[in-house]
Design a protein that fits this description.
The chain is globular. It is mainly α. The chain contains 2 helices and 2 strands; from the N terminus they run H-E-H-E. Strands 1-2 form a two-stranded parallel ribbon. The protein has helices spanning about 15-30, 55-70, and strands spanning about 40-45, 75.
C-alpha cells in the first residue's frame, strides 16, 4: 500500500459497495477546515476462502486503480 492508501476490513458485510459509497460521500461532503474539498477513490475486494493476503490485496489494489482510471472519486469492486 502506498502512502495515501489504507485498508478497512469489515467482516461479513452483505453490501460492501454501499458502505464504501457512504464513506466516499461523507468524506466528499465534509467541511474540512482550510480545505476546499477532499475526494477519495475506493477499491473494494471480497476475500475468498482460497485467497492469500497477496491475492486479496491485489484485487483491492486493481479495483482502486480502475476507480482512478475512470475519473477518481468512485467505488469499484
Amino acid at each position: 500500500m502506498g502512502g495515501e492508501e489504507f485498508m478497512i476490513i469489515v467482516p461479513h458485510d452483505p453490501n460492501p459497495r454501499a458502505l464504501a459509497e457512504k464513506l466516499r460521500y461523507v468524506i466528499e461532503h465534509h467541511d474540512f477546515a482550510g480545505v476546499e474539498q477532499i475526494t477519495c477513490s475506493f477499491g473494494v475486494a471480497i476475500m475468498l476462502s482460497k485467497d492469500t493476503s497477496e491475492t486479496f490485496t491485489g484485487r483491492a489494489d486493481d479495483a482502486l486503480y480502475e476507480a482512478k482510471l475512470k475519473g477518481r472519486n468512485r467505488v469499484e469492486i
